[in-house]
């Protein structure tokens, strides 16, 4: 599985410390919400030009890691 730590980061000076795609101001929640609403990865990448495919995969890996904790 992809190590999401390599592609997502948290900085208190960026988006209030929210977890974001590394090197961007795009919160992981925006990526996951877009996927949940039915957007394809390609549509998300076209909407956020600084986003890369690995950011989307990392957001999914992050969500998958959190999912067992939510049970």
Describe what this molecule looks like in 3D.
The chain has 71 residues and is mainly α. The chain has a single domain, classed as Winged helix-like DNA-binding domain superfamily/Winged helix DNA-binding domain (Arc Repressor Mutant, subunit A). Helix content is 42%, strand content 8%. It has helices spanning 28-36, 41-47, 53-66, and strands at residues 8-10, 19-21. It has a two-stranded antiparallel ribbon. The protein is globular, with a radius of gyration of 12 Å. The protein starts with 7 loop residues before the first strand and ends in a 5-residue tail after the last helix. The model has no long low-confidence stretch (mean pLDDT 95).
SSE inventory with pairings:
Elements: E1 8-10, E2 19-21, H1 28-36, H2 41-47, H3 53-66
Antiparallel strand pairs: 1-2
Helix pairs in contact: 1-3
Question: What keyword list fits this structure?
Answer:
71 residues; Arc Repressor Mutant, subunit A; two-stranded antiparallel ribbon; mainly alpha; single chain
What is the mean pLDDT?
A: 95
Give the strand content: 5-15%
Which CATH C-level class is it? Mainly Alpha
CATH fold annotation: Arc Repressor Mutant, subunit A
Q: Mind telling me the C-alpha Rg?
A: 12 Å
Tell me about the largest β-sheet. 2 strands, antiparallel
CATH superfamily: Winged helix-like DNA-binding domain superfamily/Winged helix DNA-binding domain
Total number of helices: 3
If strands are numbered along the chain, what order do they take across the biggest sheet?
1-2
Question: Could you estimate the helical fraction of the residues in percent?
Answer: 40-55%
- Low-pLDDT segments: none
Structural class label: mainly alpha
CATH architectural arrangement:
Orthogonal Bundle
Could you say how many structural domains there are in total?
1
Q: How many distinct beta strands?
A: 2
* End-to-end gap: 21 Å
